[in-house]
Amino acid sequence: MPASKTPTPAAVSLDDKIGQMILAGFRGMKLDPGNSILADIRERHIGGVVLFDYDVPSRSPVRNIESPSQVKDLTAALQEASPDPLLIAVDQEGGKISRLKEKFGFPATVSQESLGTSVDIVATRKSAEDTAKTLAECGFNINFSPVVDLNVNPENPVIGGRERSFSADPSVVTEHALEVIKAHHACGILTTLKHFPGHGSSKDDSHLGFVDVTETWTRKELEPYEKIIAAGLCDSVMTAHIFNSKLDPSLPATLSCRTIGGLLRDELHFDGVVISDDMQMKAISARYGFEDAILLAIGAGVDILAFANNSIFDPEVAASAIGIIRKALHDGRIGPERIDRSYTRILRLKAQLGKGIIRRAGPIYPSSLTSSR
Question: Is 185 a catalytic residue?
Fold first, then answer.
């Protein structure tokens, strides 16, 4: 993305800063003039979009992904429509969680569990390089990967049961995750560690409802985050919608100031972008009102609110969320300085796209993209 497209904080209205805090899913294999996402991008200046291969609400394989050339055209049209650099995201973890599937003409992938079990770091590096190159060729600039949840409960229906964790050993998870991140950075792709503070010990799926890990979670699940953040290689962190009374006696991680502001920001010293998991998942939507969830997440320290629009579909979700935030500002429930903090982090993240991914950890691959942070 050309650096000239990157706005400066002083030149941006408060409304546009709010828009940058929204990432939304949408329907469409191409960008038709009547698609509601166009208004979200052009008029509301939303900060990002996420693409899926399958439309869950309609139980249809027709969503955003059909072929490599079609995806490349779609991402180019999305980026062209945006007045600001647009984050174009996908969940391309490998194995069962791959939106760019072999049946659509994309390269085959393997799961993180398979890579971690093989203990072959070269295989992980090669797999990540292939994935990153595919994403770059298709116009994506951020992957919601790697998963750094520990495989504490292999029967976990959303992590272990879907082969999404490298290992139960935090050192193995960290080693493999670092290779994934480095490979993506070498191709100019941002990455996202998920699901903070750790979803691997859960017995339930937060897509479907309330998940309590109070009795199963341990602090060793923080180790991959701690080490990757300390290495200067963490672009963004995605929160989990899990409840842990030992961390916060009343709120799940996504809505918890103690978990995000206290644990992630203060204790682990992460001042980068925090992205929520899908705010429409039932762990949040079934227990909290739409407005309350948004304001609690922002109060907790979330910078980008993700609305995947793929558990329910609401073409007005971005407009509604922005309206809620704008009203909260007007009423004094949120201060403009809180929006500015998130906007500054988002701007800093997007600036990496204009000049290549650079980190203070030093060279990661022989590439003009590497430098000191």
Answer: no
